[in-house]
Inverse folding.
């Protein structure tokens, strides 16, 4: 079964501004949100951060899947089994198989030419 095309444009996430190490070590400090007094401004910035973290998570998952597919490629002399990949990534073997398949789909979609 063919995957639906990804025609929607990726939303550009809000920039994640790195915090100074002294501020990051304070557990009550999180991107200066605790200092915001206007609830509208707090909601807007917290929403931007949530969307940025979700976008970063989605992107990282895609890269995990691509790496898993590349590591499992039977053309590699040093290819890994799904079980090997699962242990390295701390996944179950079933999840590793799904990620390998997802990564293969992403790699095929990135190839030039007819699909």
């Amino acid at each position: 079964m063919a995957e639906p095309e990804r025609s929607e444009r990726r939303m550009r996430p809000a920039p994640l501004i790195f915090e100074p190490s002294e501020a990051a070590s304070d557990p009550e400090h999180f991107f200066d949100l605790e200092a915001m007094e206007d609830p509208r401004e707090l909601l807007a910035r917290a929403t931007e951060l949530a969307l940025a973290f979700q976008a970063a998570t989605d992107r990282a998952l895609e890269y995990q899947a691509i790496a898993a597919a590349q590591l499992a490629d039977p053309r590699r002399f040093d290819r890994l089994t799904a079980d090997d990949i699962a242990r390295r990534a701390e996944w179950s073997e079933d999840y590793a198989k799904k990620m390998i398949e997802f990564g293969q789909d992403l790699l095929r979609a990135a190839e030039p030419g007819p699909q």
About this structure: The chain has a mean pLDDT of 83. Residues 16 and 49 are 7 Å apart (CA to CA). DSSP finds four helices and no strands in the chain. Residues 39-72 form the longest helix (34 residues).
